[in-house]
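Think of the structure tokens as a kind of shorthand, similar to the way a musician reads notation: each symbol stands for something richer, in this case the local conformation of the backbone. In the example below we present two proteins back to back. Begin with the first one, reading the sequence and then the tokens, and try to describe in your own words what changes along the chain.
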Amino acid sequence: SKATELDPGFARAWSSLAAAHITLPAYADEPARENYDLAVEYAQKALAMDPSIAEAHAVIADVLRIDRSWSEAYKHYRTALELEPTNSTGHLWFAEHLLSVGHATRALEHLEIALDLDPYNPGVHAVMHNAYTQLRDFDNAINYAESAGELGQPAAVFWLAMAEVDAGLFEAAKSRLRAYPDTSDPAHPVYRYVAARESGNLEEYVVLLETGNPPPQFRIEMLATVGRVSDAIEFAKTMPMRGNSWNAMWEIGIPELYAHPGFAEILESAGIISHWDEIGWPERCSRDGGQITCR
């Protein structure tokens, strides 16, 4: 902000300030909506002075993605990459957009470019973990969660534990959770969730659903696991499901959830199907006449 005060006509300073506001809520206890609105305001100021600043287009795209304005977000991401194809952050944020709409394979292509351009960025490693989780490649998901932690991503211990759970490495996951301040208590819902998955005890899932107040993604997964897929769908319909939530939704590995007709309804209401009609459909979903199926 000091640079914009010293030179209010310095477009790149406004763009950098916009980028700071879009990322701030992820790293500090700051109000998301207020920061996103400021990010858009400052990015638009930058573009009014210099429409060729890729970073400003990427910031606007990221807020549009969060707000599920998929098509407009996609256009701004593409503009950003056309203006600056060697910008690692542009490829990273576009990959997050693609992951939000189920395009994990395409996302991985951009993440590999981002990794080549900026190999020590913990955010790139973290999103690589997300992409491989969507693709059910748990070896790579574990590797990138681990490297994200080594590079300083504070939440990576939790992500690594969840990747180990998906890979069936329950003891390793529980050990990590015991060392993670937020989940060190074995009575914590996430720790109990891991224990329930390890035991395969569906009754424990039901108890946890009723008493443990698990995080939304886990609640959806647990409802589907105990055969209550319709309840999982109905719960998902009550969630705000902003852009960031969709990345987690695609990581749930239960085919019955994606095959349920209600899942297609959620996709439709979120505007994802119309976006696929514009950019192409992901490998995991298809439409045959009026029937939409995902896996």
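Once you have a description of the first chain, move to the second and do the same.
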Amino acid sequence: RREYERRCRRLADTAPLAIYVSSGVEQRCEYINPRFVELFGYTQEEVPTVNDWFSLAYPDHGYRTMIAESWQSRVADAIEISSGIEPMDLVVTCKDGARKHIQWGFIAGCGQQWAFGRDMTERKAAEQAVLELNAGLEQKIAERTAELAERTAQLAHLSERLELAMQVTSDGLWDCDLLTEKVYCNANYFAMLGYGPTELGDNVADVLTNLLPPEEREAIIASIRQRFATEGGHESEFRMRAKDGSYRWIFARGRVIDRDDDERPRRAIGTHIDIPARKEAEAAQSALSSYSRRLI
């Protein structure tokens, strides 16, 4: 038995847990290990009984009364059946005034009561940091959500105004996703070329590229893309094929309104204006000037 007790003592002396061993009705202290002294700063002489330990470790009367009732009830049950208790997480006030989160376990047997304390202070601090981080993230998400909701409402208002503008203007209006090349056009865009709103597709090839003169397509598209990338917009004049097979002169304007993270143009809007009358006047003026030069 003595050899067994010596082995238990050696284990207790080197254990990473704080250990307080008591016995008897008064629960007088028989042993505390070095880890107990290291954690809390109290020696065995300073905590001769469990009541003395409770008075020092839990100086707040209300808190001490609350946990003492629960602790003593659990300990009484454990002593009666020589077993342990469910761990209790308590805040211990150390000799130097520091407060530590300790998880206490207890087991009774052979006339002794062993209390084991695991320091959970760093873990609790880490858990609190995670909680605060989560709270901060939730706050940022809420703020971002509110911001997005406000922007969505603003965009809806702008979209409504744009739709009204599309209904009253005679210009052809377009809105293009430059990455997917999907395009939204108003009815006038198609009507000026004699098409119905649903006769062509909804991408750049259908509503622009394929309607350009074959010999001019590559140069026109390359110029528009280059000016979008470098200047943020373009103004161009070119011919587009109408439904009847003729080509009509169009004055086109476009402006980049959104770019991706790499500053590549992502979205552009613009207008098409049918200008055959102006082109006919320019042709007539050119012919008149040529005729006048021949007369001179």
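Compare your description with these statements about the second chain. The mean pLDDT is 87.
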